[in-house]
């Protein structure tokens, strides 16, 4: 088997094109630009610009040391990680100073996808990077007002740590410690952007919250940091990303997302990731579920060159529940390395992981999971299902779960299957006048249908269309 | 050409292996192949290779042309044949250092060669009894079957007494030629002071059928590594194991099903029945190479938790690079349900006996697939001995 380090031509081409564009997109005249590369100076610069409180600056500097001391996890992960050149990356471009791009620079296929997905004109400009900020004030201001009236805090993380330190600080970095992995350490050192959300006791937020709602804030940062706290009995759904492809010049994205569900609270976190195919998307996401609380990650990965993302739930209180629903689609030049981490830390906790991946062309999808049930717990349950569908002869798929069970009062089961769209199925549909490509698309949509329905309505419709698009040209 | 002394290639390869052993680093926490493993068990300072090995052979009447000799004799008399098959593949599952040590010190064991179209009806039985404190045994079993040949071999490892701590680093190479049937079975009943590293490498040729089975009931720590490589179309490999750890016993099992040719099958079933504060690790990988289309590969690890203090770790893995593949893996961990106990109690069976019966039935499932009555009988007797001791 050839090492991942050798990049196929398509990927290489994609990267090269973007590098050239990158030069164009970052003119010298940025007022707040931390420059290229990472050092303690860069971090002090970011702290200065953002006017961080001293504890945040210390937190960043300590994290930077941790980042340096941690090795690349290539002992278990793909060698492709060695293609990240930390010295060539820009770690901070100040708010509102993001590069503008002309419509002429946006690749045709991105425009075509916008067209076919029916993305509103306003959103298109933002997604394509023509506008630095998506202007959503008119559309969502009424929602925002309502939230504020109920006592919901919904701000960016910079504002959160300054204005709401008493709520923010006790949980910040507690669910995912800085030293969790190399990339969580990197994020802790240079984070900017992301959301801070606090839902007061007993409040059930009716509308799903989206980063879109926030105005005049850093959006979708490279190193975004999100912290969501749902107080006792509160319920919230948060949506991140969008189905339309996001055309990006920055090649490393490393976010940290922490969720805290207090007693009886319920948090659902929906992600649709569709970065362009030159992006390394290395994300750490974890939720802490207290007594009777529930944390659900609903995760869909379609874009990026390499995604490594294993949303986790630590079930700390009795009867807590954790769930990960995951869809991954890997096309040629892509590696979707996703999974789930379920840490049972109290009696009668239960977790469920359902993962479906589709490998198209030379794409590679990987499921990596961990289920941990320690000693002296009773009545813990885990169910893990991962199914992989391979479309073409040179598609690749892997599964690497790890399950630890101590004691005889638990039930765990893990099942995985790998299959193809059977010739009979295609023949059946072709017989009824459906073209081979359309039949394939139908079969694939059928494969993930029950998971797509977990997404909010508008997402699931777009998701289906998007998958149809991705499938095009894969058959015949 | 026959030689009567140890051939030079063999001596040279032993020296080289010693160099490899010295050069390789000890496994560390960072090694994925030792994840959840107990590295403390790898300390065997003060241990020396055993001076003499106590091995008894029970060899049935053999058809003409079959070679069945203690390993050293085979090296002397059939050097070229041994050289062709002896440790040709790397240990990929973490124990390369220890297989090098094995190679440098190999002593005792068995060489079997069955020529084309020859069938050996009765199993060949070998019994290793390891004696003396702080001794390391390095037995090697090499089995080669020619075209359409058939043979089955049983290796049993036991200790001479209950007190001497020893280590056994056993390596076996199974090479199943075209259309042949090769079955190999290990019963590991070392005493509770001893440790075992068993590394199995199976190569299954076109239309051949190989079966490898391991029973673990003894030793304080055992590590089993099994690789099965399907190299010809129509190859079929059964990888089976049954482990019944109790007390503080630890078993660490790593498997690799490598499909290198299209239209191949492999089926793995590992069953663990855990008592006391015992601990098991199962890490399996199915690798389907590019171009190995129409592969069927199955992998199942089942853990029956008999007590609240036991720990089972499972890492069932898949790597698929081909199309038209049917693969699945499953891993479960659970305990005996109250309904099952109730069913048996309703029929007048005491709860203890009911649990024993269910555990026994659970363990024996993998044994049924060995497909040789005599060997199955011996394995079941060893399982009964274990349950009687709990």
The number of distinct helices of chain A, counting runs of at least 4 residues, comes to 12
SSE succession of chain B: HEEEHHHEEEEEEEEEEEEEEEEEHHH
Q: Low-confidence runs of chain B (pLDDT<50, min 5 residues)? A: none
Sum up the overall morphology of chain A in one term: globular
The percent of residues in helical segments of chain A reads 25-40%
Distance from N terminus to C terminus of chain A (CA atoms, Å) equals 26 Å
> On the 0-100 scale, what is the average pLDDT of chain B?
93
Radius of gyration of chain B: 20 Å
Give the C-alpha Rg of chain A. 22 Å
The unreliable regions of chain A are: 1-7, 11-30, 95-100, 130-140, 213-220
Per DSSP E runs of 2 or more residues, the count of β-strands of chain A stands at: 19
Rounded mean pLDDT of chain A is 80
Q: Note the main sheet of chain B.
A: 11 strands, mixed
Integer tally of domains of chain B: 1
Descriptive overview:
The complex is a heterodimer of chains A (476) and B (390). With 476 residues, chain A is of the alpha/beta class. Chain A folds into 2 domains: 9-309, no CATH class; 421-476, no CATH class. Chain A is 29% helix and 29% strand. Chain A is built from 12 helices and 19 strands. Chain A has helices at 9-25, 40-50, 54-69, 108-117, 121-127, 137-149, 157-163, 165-171, 182-190, 423-431, 436-452, 457-471, and strands at residues 153-156, 195-199, 209-210, 225-230, 235-241, 252-253, 256-261, 266-273, 280-289, 294-301, 306-309, 312-315, 321-330, 335-344, 350-359, 364-373, 381-390, 396-406, 411-420. In chain A, the strands form 2 sheets. In chain A, strands 1, 2, 4, 6, 7, 9, 11, 12, 14, 16 and 18 form an 11-stranded mixed β-sheet that branches. Chain A is globular, with a radius of gyration of 22 Å. Residues 1-7, 11-30, 95-100, 130-140 and 213-220 of chain A have low confidence and may be disordered. Helix content of chain B is 20%, strand content 41%. Chain B is α/β, with parallel strands linked by helices and 390 residues long. Chain B has one domain (8-337). In chain B, helix 1 runs antiparallel to helix 4. Chain B is globular and about 65 Å long. Chain B has 7 helices and 20 strands. In chain B, the strands form 2 sheets. In chain B, strands 1, 3, 4, 6, 7, 9, 11, 13, 15, 17 and 19 form an 11-stranded mixed β-sheet that branches. Chain B has a 9-stranded mixed β-sheet with strand order 2-5-8-10-12-14-16-18-20, covered by helices on one side. Chains A and B meet through strand 18 and strand 19 of A and strand 19 and strand 20 of B.
């Amino acid at each position: 088997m050839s090492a991942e380090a050798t990049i196929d031509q398509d990927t290489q081409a994609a990267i090269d094109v973007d590098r050239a564009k990158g030069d164009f997109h970052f003119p010298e005249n940025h007022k707040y630009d931390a420059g290229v590369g990472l050092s303690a100076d860069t971090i002090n610069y970011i702290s200065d610009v953002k006017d961080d409180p001293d504890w945040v600056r210390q937190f960043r500097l300590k994290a930077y040391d941790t980042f340096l001391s941690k090795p690349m996890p290539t002992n278990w992960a793909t060698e492709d990680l060695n293609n990240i050149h930390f010295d060539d990356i820009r770690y901070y471009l100040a708010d509102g100073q993001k590069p503008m791009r002309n419509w002429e620079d946006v690749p045709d296929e991105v425009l075509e996808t916008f067209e076919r997905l029916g993305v509103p004109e306003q959103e298109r400009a933002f997604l394509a990077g023509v506008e630095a900020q998506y202007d959503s004030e008119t559309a969502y201001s009424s929602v925002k007002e309502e939230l504020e009236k109920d006592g919901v805090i919904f701000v960016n993380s910079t504002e959160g740590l300054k204005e709401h330190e008493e709520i923010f600080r006790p949980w910040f970095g507690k669910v995912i410690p800085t030293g969790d992995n190399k990339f969580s350490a990197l994020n802790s050192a240079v984070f900017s952007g992301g959301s801070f959300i606090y839902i007061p006791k007993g409040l059930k937020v009716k509308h799903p919250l989206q980063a879109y709602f926030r105005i005049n804030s850093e959006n979708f940062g490279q190193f975004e940091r999100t912290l969501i706290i749902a107080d006792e009995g509160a319920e919230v759904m948060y949506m991140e990303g969008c189905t339309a492809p996001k055309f990006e010049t920055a090649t490393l994205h490393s976010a940290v997302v922490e969720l805290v569900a207090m007693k009886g609270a319920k948090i659902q976190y929906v992600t649709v990731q569709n970065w362009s195919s030159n992006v390394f998307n290395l994300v750490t996401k974890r939720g802490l579920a207290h007594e009777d609380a529930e944390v659900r990650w609903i995760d869909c990965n379609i874009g990026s060159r390499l995604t490594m993302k294993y949303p986790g739930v630590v079930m700390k209180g009795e009867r807590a529940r954790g769930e990960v629903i995951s869809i991954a689609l890997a096309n040629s030049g892509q590696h979707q390395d996703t999974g789930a981490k379920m840490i049972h830390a109290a009696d009668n906790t239960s977790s469920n992981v359902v993962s479906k991946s589709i490998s198209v062309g030379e794409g590679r999808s990987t499921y990596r999971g961990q289920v941990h049930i320690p000693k002296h717990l009773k009545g813990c349950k885990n169910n893990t299902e991962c199914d992989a569908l391979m479309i073409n002869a040179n598609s690749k798929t892997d599964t690497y779960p790890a399950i630890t069970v101590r004691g005889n009062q638990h039930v765990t089961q893990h099942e995985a299957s790998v299959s193809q769209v059977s010739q009979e199925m295609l023949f059946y549909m072709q017989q009824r006048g459906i073209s081979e490509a359309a039949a394939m698309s139908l079969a694939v949509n059928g494969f993930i249908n029950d998971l797509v329905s977990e997404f909010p309505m508008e997402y699931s419709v777009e998701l289906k269309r998007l998958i149809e698009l991705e499938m095009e040209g894969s058959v015949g | 050409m026959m030689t009567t002394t140890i051939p030079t290639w063999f001596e040279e390869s032993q020296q080289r292996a010693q160099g490899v052993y010295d050069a390789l680093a000890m496994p560390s926490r960072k090694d994925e192949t030792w994840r959840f493993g107990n590295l403390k068990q790898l300390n065997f300072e003060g241990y020396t290779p055993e001076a003499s090995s106590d091995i008894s052979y029970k060899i049935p009447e053999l058809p003409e042309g079959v070679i069945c000799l203690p390993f050293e004799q085979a090296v002397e008399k059939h050097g070229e044949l041994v050289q062709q098959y002896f440790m040709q593949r790397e240990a990929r599952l973490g124990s390369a250092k220890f297989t090098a040590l094995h190679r440098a010190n190999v002593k005792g064991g068995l060489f079997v060669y069955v020529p084309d179209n020859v069938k050996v009806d009765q199993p060949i039985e070998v019994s290793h009894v390891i004696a003396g404190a702080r001794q390391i045994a390095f037995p090697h079993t090499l089995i080669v079957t020619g075209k359409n040949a058939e043979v089955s071999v049983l290796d049993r490892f036991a200790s001479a007494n209950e007190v001497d701590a020893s280590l056994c680093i056993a390596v076996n190479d199974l090479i199943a030629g075209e259309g042949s049937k090769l079955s190999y079975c290990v019963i590991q009943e070392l005493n509770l002071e001893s440790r075992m590293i068993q590394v199995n490498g199976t190569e299954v040729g076109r239309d051949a059928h190989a079966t490898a089975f391991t029973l673990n009931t003894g030793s304080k720590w055992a590590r089993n590594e099994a690789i099965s490589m399907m190299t010809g179309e129509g190859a079929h490999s059964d990888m089976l194991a049954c482990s019944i750890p109790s007390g503080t016993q630890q078993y660490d099992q790593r498997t690799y099903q490598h499909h290198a040719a299209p239209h191949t099958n492999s089926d793995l079933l590992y069953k663990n029945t855990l008592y006391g504060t015992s601990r098991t690790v199962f890490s399996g990988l199915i690798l389907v190479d590019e171009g190995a289309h129409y592969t069927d590969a199955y992998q199942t690890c089942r853990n029956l938790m008999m007590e609240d203090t036991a720990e089972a770790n499972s890492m069932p893995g898949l790597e698929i690079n081909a199309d038209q593949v049917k693969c699945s893996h499953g891993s479960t961990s659970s305990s005996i349900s109250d309904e099952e106990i109730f069913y048996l109690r309703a029929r007048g069976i005491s709860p203890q006996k009911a649990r024993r019966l269910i555990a026994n039935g659970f363990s024996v499932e993998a044994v049924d697939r060995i497909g040789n009555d005599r060997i199955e009988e011996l394995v079941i007797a060893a399982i009964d001995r274990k349950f009687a001791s709990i």
